[in-house]
Design goal:
The chain is mainly α. It has helices at residues 8-33, 43-54, 56-86, 101-104, 106-128, 146-158, 162-175, 182-211, 226-235, 245-252, 256-283, 292-318; strands spanning 136-139, 220-224, 242-243. A three-stranded antiparallel beta sheet has the order 2-1-3. Helix 1 (8-33) crosses helix 12 (292-318) and helix 7 packs antiparallel against helix 8. The longest helix is centred in the N-terminal third of the chain and has 31 residues, at 56-86. It is elongated. The two termini are 54 Å apart.
């Protein structure tokens, strides 16, 4: 197979530009993850995830980000393959190189990070797009239609189940059926049918009240199962059920094996970033004798901040903090 002819320098520049973009994204993602450590029942983190999941600008950025990640992987593999093809015969005697160990391990740490991303996507992003089941949440306000509110009000006042409230209204209408004009009867039947359609949602809210699945600010109903999500999407399509990433994250990091796998991935990320940060500046020609020391210091600070910031979440959640 013959690969497209693009100069090696061009490929390195593309890898550097894409890598620089990912360096900025990692800082953003790490900062957002720290919201999980707040003891506010997920108020900040859920608000952040809600914004990221509903804003159309962010949705476009999400597609761009996925494309950038894929491009980074493909460009890197392309660069490795073309470099190998350019030198099909290996050296007979290994030469001692001053190249840093992390540079030599870039491909292997990249493979580990890719494997981690597959796992991470299965646990979170695939839940968001509906390919994997998870835990969900919904805003209470978006469930409060006129019919649902009517059922809930009568249910609370009379101590009745939502289905019994609708049955009582239907029986009452039957008592006066002979006194109603055909137009009035048709209108009443339509209203009762609307109430019947709202019963599953009202029963869902009643269950949430009994089991106290509300957030501290009473804005969200949490711990929604996949089956309940499907019901809400059918009976209340405008409610916008969302993955409960806060609950999913905290639940995941109570698993010691998952914490260990995440920490292994963060070690690989640390090693990858140790070489990646200065490489971006070097490839783009932004380093020189004057700034090399500063770039090296900034690279070390960035790498430690990113790694420790990401690692803090699973460790502290596992410890119950």
């Amino acid at each position: 197979m013959e690969l497209p002819k693009i100069h090696s320098i061009t490929k390195k520049l593309l890898v550097a530009l894409v890598g620089g973009f990912l360096l900025l994204f990692l800082l953003f993602h790490m900062t957002a993850n720290l919201f999980i450590l707040r003891h506010d029942d997920g108020a900040w983190y859920s608000a952040f995830c809600h914004f990221m999941g509903t804003n159309w600008v962010v949705k476009i950025f999400e597609v761009v980000l996925l494309g950038v990640v894929a491009l980074h992987i493909l460009l890197t593999l392309w660069l490795v393959v073309t470099n190998r093809l350019a030198r099909p015969t290996r050296y007979h005697q290994r030469q001692r190189s001053k190249t840093h160990t992390t540079s030599k391990l870039m491909m292997w740490t990249g493979i580990l990070i890719f494997a981690f991303l597959v796992m991470h996507f299965c646990q979170f992003w695939f839940v968001k797009v509906g390919l994997v089941k998870g835990d969900y949440m919904v805003e209470v306000e978006k469930l409060q239609t006129e019919e649902v509110s009517t059922i809930m009000q009568y249910s609370a006042q009379n101590g009745m189940e939502p289905a019994d409230v609708v049955a009582a209204v239907e029986n009452q209408m039957a008592m006066y059926a002979d006194q109603l004009a055909p137009e009035q009867m048709a209108e009443m039947e339509a209203n009762i049918q609307s109430l019947k359609d709202a019963v599953p949602v009202a029963e869902f809210i009643s269950k949430a009240l009994r089991e106290d699945h509300f957030s501290q600010d009473r804005k969200w109903i949490r711990h929604i199962s996949y089956d309940e999500r499907q019901m809400l999407k059918e009976k209340a399509p405008k409610c916008g059920v969302e993955p409960d990433f806060y609950y999913m994250s905290r639940n995941l990091f109570h698993n010691g094996l998952m914490v260990l796998l995440y920490l292994i991935a963060f070690v690989a990320l640390f090693m990858h970033l140790t070489h990646a940060f200065p490489s971006v500046f070097q490839t783009l020609g932004l380093n020189n004798y004057t700034y090399n020391g500063i770039i090296e210091i900034l690279g070390k600070i960035y790498t430690w901040v990113i790694t420790l910031g990401f690692a803090a979440v699973p460790i502290l959640v596992f410890l119950g903090l």
